[in-house]
Design goal:
The protein has 13 helices and six strands. It has 348 residues and is mainly α.
């Protein structure tokens, strides 16, 4: 019921994961159609980059304001942190408090003075500022670290390396928020170098009961997970895309003109192949560097034909090998018979 610093950090991570989901499944896919010269009508979707910027911006982000409050001299409280947010984020469309200009709840008692609200991609969440500053500092006094490092137990000593007098760092340790922000940035950098697959889990009800589906709850999750936009892009777009060279290499055995070798550009070879297979023109499009196949059943058809063709080629190879083996054996027997007969005639 009361969301504090911990839930704020968790929701920030969720925003970043949603951002990379949008980048890789909606933004990147539509941009690829444009790059490849495919006729395409842009599908609008909500990009939560504006929410991520509200939280992590180095100058005006909430985490930056929190760090600034933790580091500045003088009296620092959670209330002064909230006042700072009201000054810096007052006009942001996704930030609301009792004092902000964007708040539509100035007379709403459900939004206390000690709280602020962020309109996340998944909905609005209200945060209680009490404890934000202390939890973000996350400091352990240097003398306590040194005392723990002097313990005789090896495990306890290993847990507090910063207590080693020879490694004392007078520099203020990073705050919890900045550490988490750096960890999230490392995670995002790692994910962007991969080819991730997504599994979206839908909670059917709030009671964890079997065979009970709450339609309103399910629809709400589908909307805020961005699945509607994703489905629209997928249905309007192409289920499969592949560069011309590997596509021709995989399916060239299905056409006599491209098998076993195609002399010429790979794109022309793919055109000859698809024309030979009589695949309807509305089922595929030729991009600048890739072939785009609209319906999965077309791909399944190609795979079935390829599987059957491989079996036929395996049978052909086996037939040729058996013929060669029998002929070789026959010629050897014939040669042996001639040698035996010649020696027999000589001594007969």
């Amino acid at each position: 019921q009361d969301n504090s610093f911990e839930q704020f950090i968790i929701n920030y991570c969720n925003e970043k994961l949603q951002q990379i989901f949008i980048e890789l499944t909606l933004k990147e896919e539509q941009e690829e159609y444009i790059r490849e010269g495919i006729e395409w009508t842009h599908i609008e979707y909500f990009n939560n980059a504006v929410i991520c910027d509200l939280i992590e911006n180095n100058q005006t982000g909430i985490l930056a304001m929190l760090d600034e409050e933790c580091l500045r001299p003088g009296t620092v409280t959670d209330d002064t942190f909230l006042e700072k947010l009201n000054q810096v984020c007052a006009t942001h469309q996704h930030f609301e408090s009792r004092m902000s200009k964007c708040s539509r709840f100035l007379n709403d008692t459900s939004l206390p003075h000690s709280c602020f609200r962020i309109q996340h991609y998944a909905g609005k969440v209200m945060y209680q500022v009490e404890g934000f500053v202390d939890k973000n500092n996350d400091l352990l006094y240097r003398d306590l670290s040194q005392a723990m490092w002097k313990a005789s137990h090896s495990l306890i000593k290993a847990l507090f390396p910063e207590g080693n007098p020879s490694k004392i760092n007078l520099k203020r340790p990073p705050t919890a928020g900045s550490q988490f922000k750096a960890s999230v940035a490392t995670l995002m950098k790692n994910l962007q170098t991969k080819n991730p697959n997504y599994i979206r889990c839908i909670k059917p009800n709030d009671k964890k009961a079997a065979y009970v589906f709450n339609d309103a709850l399910v629809c709400h999750q589908i909307r805020y997970l961005g699945l509607l936009e994703n489905v629209r892009v997928r249905r309007a777009g192409y289920a499969f895309r592949q560069a011309y060279e590997p596509c021709l290499e995989r399916y060239k055995m299905l056409c006599k003109q491209t098998w076993p070798h195609w002399r010429g550009p790979a794109r022309d070879g793919v055109k000859v192949l698809f024309n030979e297979l009589k695949i309807p023109e509305e089922e595929f499009s030729f991009g600048r560097s890739k072939i785009f196949i609209r319906n999965p059943r077309t791909l399944f058809k190609l795979e079935d034909l390829r599987k059957q063709r491989l079996e036929d080629l395996a049978t052909l190879i086996e037939k040729i090998y058996r013929g060669w083996k029998c002929r070789t054996h026959f010629l050897l027997m014939k040669k042996s018979q001639i040698v035996i007969a010649s020696w027999y005639r000589r001594y007969a």
